[in-house]
Write a structure and sequence with these properties.
By secondary structure, the chain is an alpha+beta fold. It has 2 domains: about 150 residues, 3-Layer(aba) Sandwich (Creatine Amidinohydrolase, Chain A, domain 1); about 270 residues, Creatinase/methionine aminopeptidase superfamily (Creatine Amidinohydrolase), CATH 3.90.230. It is built from 11 helices and 15 strands. Strands 8, 9, 10, 11, 12, 13 and 14 form a 7-stranded antiparallel beta sheet that branches. Strands 5-4-3-2-6-7 form a 6-stranded mixed beta sheet, with helices on both faces. A hairpin with a 2-residue loop joins strand 9 and strand 10. The radius of gyration is 23 Å and the shape is globular. The relative contact order is 0.14.
């Protein structure tokens, strides 16, 4: 049996893309056509797609528009151009969307205290869009529930739609059309979208790499976070960086605390399509760890790395989410590790779309899926945690061939990462697995020795 060992290794420079990957405008019309086909198959005549600042990915996926400050709703019918309703501050910005739409000011989506004197009542808008007695409407927010009658879109919108369709109509949660873990439109990505995600992952992973190799005791948290080098791309979550006792609380933003030797430390950086996270101790070796946890690597980090390696090695098109879940349950199921979320999930513009990974899940992974390797121990003890979050994609041979032909520079980076993971780290990847991170499965537990990372030997 192969065992995890801490070794001094060289993390290669996998390179950075020269230019951003811009999706062709035609992709949005194609997505809208697929969405309409799904609506018709499910027996809906109309969909309302809701968005706000935190939950904009579905609308951005369909139109290329996402609201700032406000809410917005896209009304999609079978033939006409969709109608976008947005508030005072975004109505002009909506004109820049790559999808041709009708745009209407709807001031109830504006911020509190702003003018509300120039827009029609929502009921009048719905009537003009042929949403009336007996209509069947899919409400698309950002969650799905076992009971389709549960809709998380704001009540003033849902109430207006339910009033319009009457007792003979249907208003249901249709979020799974876009984000269902098995076949939602957003969990199977086009080639250009995958290339854009690889571009994003280069930036987030290089940022975390800069932190790993650049942080020093005495720096303040808000100095270290600058090493991430955020380039202004839309964030998929707030920048996370914390040290000392705060690091165990998770999800916190950096403050002015000065980092000290022996501290716990964690950081995460996510932009649309990518997120990377690492955690460990601000020490050079086990001799500097707090009393009682000198076996930190043997007790926590090594079994964690072995589990993640097996998870990686089990990845391929056609694998089930249940099989991936079983690996983590078998290896890290002890309550000491404190694993409580799905061990792995799909990602897109939003950091967490859905997850096919769950006990006994029969959902099969498909070519074009982008996944986050996201397995976080929460020991609740002095051992703190360890973390190795990176993004990957799955691609069958035809998709791999098209990727290599259309984006040769990105493909060269992917091939170099695969070689590093296989030849240096000892993780035997299936050809379907495309690592997007420039710190692929690279896990240094002692952060003042970032040149010493976990590997598999034997």
């Amino acid at each position: 049996m192969r065992r995890a060992r801490l070794r001094q290794i060289e993390l290669p420079d996998f390179g950075m893309p020269d230019a951003a990957v811009d999706l062709p405008d035609t992709v949005y019309a194609e997505r809208l056509d697929r969405f309409r086909t799904r609506l018709a198959t499910r027996g809906y005549d109309t969909a309302l797609v809701y968005a706000d600042r935190e939950h904009s990915a579905n609308l951005a996926y369909l139109t290329g528009f996402e609201p700032r400050f406000e809410e917005a709703v896209l009304i999609v019918r079978s033939a006409e151009r969709p109608l976008l309703l947005t508030g005072n501050e975004c109505v002009g910005m909506a004109e820049a969307a790559p999808l041709p739409m009708r745009v209407e000011l709807h001031q109830d989506f504006s911020l509190p205290g702003q003018p509300r004197d120039r827009s029609r009542p929502l009921g009048a808008v719905l009537a003009e869009e042929a949403i009336g007695e007996g209509s069947r409407v899919a409400m698309v927010g950002w969650k799905e529930f076992a009971d389709r009658a549960m809709v998380e879109v704001p009540s003033f919108v849902v109430d207006a739609v339910r009033s319009a369709v009457g007792r003979e109509g249907v208003v249901e949660n249709g979020g799974d059309i876009l984000t269902g873990a098995a076949d939602g439109l957003r969990v199977i990505n086009e080639l250009d979208q995958l290339a854009a995600f690889e571009h994003a992952a280069c930036h987030t992973s290089n940022g975390v790499r800069n932190v790993l190799f650049g942080l020093e005791p005495g720096m303040r948290e808000n100095e270290v976070v600058r090493l991430l080098g955020w380039n202004g791309a839309p964030l998929s979550c707030h920048l996370m960086l914390s040290s000392g006792p705060r690091a165990s609380l998770g999800l916190l933003s950096p403050g002015r605390r000065r980092i000290e030797r022996g501290d716990r430390f964690t950081t995460a950086y996510g932009i649309w399509g990518a997120l990377n996270c690492r955690a460990g101790f601000i020490v050079e070796g086990a001799h500097e760890l707090p009393p009682g946890i000198s076996d930190y690597v043997d007790r926590l980090v090594a079994p964690y790395f072995e589990a993640i390696a097996e998870w990686y090695e089990a990845l391929h098109v056609g694998q089930t989410g249940g099989a991936l879940n079983e690996i983590i349950s078998r290896r890290l199921g002890d309550s000491f590790f404190g694993i409580f979320l799905n061990p792995g999930h799909q990602l897109h513009l939003d950091e967490w779309v859905n997850s096919p990974v769950a006990p006994d899940s029969s959902i099969e992974l498909r070519s074009g899926m982008a996944l986050q390797v996201d397995v976080i121990p929460a020991t609740g003890t002095d051992y703190f945690t360890t973390n190795i979050e990176d993004g990957i994609a799955l691609a069958d041979p035809p998709l791999r061939d098209r990727f290599a032909a259309r984006y040769p520079d990105a493909w060269d980076r992917i091939e170099a990462r695969r070689a590093f993971m296989i030849d240096v780290l000892g993780i035997r990847l299936h050809p379907d697995v495309l690592p997007f991170s420039n710190i692929p499965a690279y896990l240094p537990p002692f952060l003042l020795r970032p040149d010493r990372a976990m590997t598999l030997v034997g």
